[in-house]
Write a structure and sequence with these properties.
Rieske Iron-sulfur Protein, four-stranded antiparallel sheet, 2 domains, binds FE2/S2 (inorganic) cluster, 11 strands, globular, alpha+beta
Length: 197
């Protein structure tokens, strides 16, 4: 290339600086969009209020049949099977309302307790695995790895007279997730992980 067609050194540096800035801004944008849904409680409708998610027995049957949590996206919640008689469960989950008496169910908030991304379910490992920075939680939402400071938070729930599971998604009533040390379930990954961070 002839000298006159080459970018002057100062312009070249400016171009590289703007390229780098653009890359960083783009990355932040993707992360921001991943978290955005959690910043606008009214957009999806229903979140923030008690939500009837379905007949409690049917929900439990679906969880067992599909070997997956019962997801309710507009309420930003998962319902999982929970055994309150497991050794250590009472100490780790003694907060009022994490398990609906007699149903064997518990409602988890989908929001990662690290920086707020929605945490998907990984069918192969049978864990929740966050794509943002790699936090992982077992099927009770207990912390098993990554930067998250604790397990997933939980919503208090009740069963109405018709047998319908009602989850209270008011953030003010949220139950803080169990400490990293809880490890009640001690569930190893049951297959390949979905997130390799
Ligand atoms: S937001 Fe989930 S690991 Fe950071």
């Amino acid at each position: 290339m002839s000298d006159e067609r080459r970018l002057p050194e100062v312009e070249r540096r400016t171009f590289l600086r703007y390229s780098l800035f653009g890359g960083v801004a783009g990355g932040l944008g993707v992360f921001g969009l991943a978290s955005l849904g959690f910043l606008w409680p009214q957009l999806t409708g229903g979140f923030g209020e008690p939500i009837p998610v379905g007949n409690a027995s049917d929900v439990l049957a679906t969880i067992r049949e599909e070997r997956a949590p019962f997801a309710y996206p507009s309420g930003r919640l998962y319902v999982v099977e929970y055994d309150p008689s497991a050794p250590g469960a009472e100490e780790a989950y003694g907060q009022i309302g994490v398990e609906v008496e007699g149903t064997g169910l518990m409602a988890l908030y989908q929001k990662c307790v690290h920086l707020g991304c929605r945490v998907p379910w990984c069918q192969t490992s049978q864990w929740f695995e966050c794509p943002c920075h790699g936090s992982k939680y077992n099927r009770w939402g207990e912390w098993v790895g990554g930067p998250a400071p604790r397990g997933l938070d939980r919503f208090p729930s009740t069963v109405d007279p018709n047998g319908v599971l009602v989850v209270d998604t008011n953030p003010a009533n949220l139950q803080t997730g169990p400490a990293r040390t809880a490890n009640v379930l001690s569930q190893e990954a049951e297959g390949p992980n979905c997130v390799d961070l």
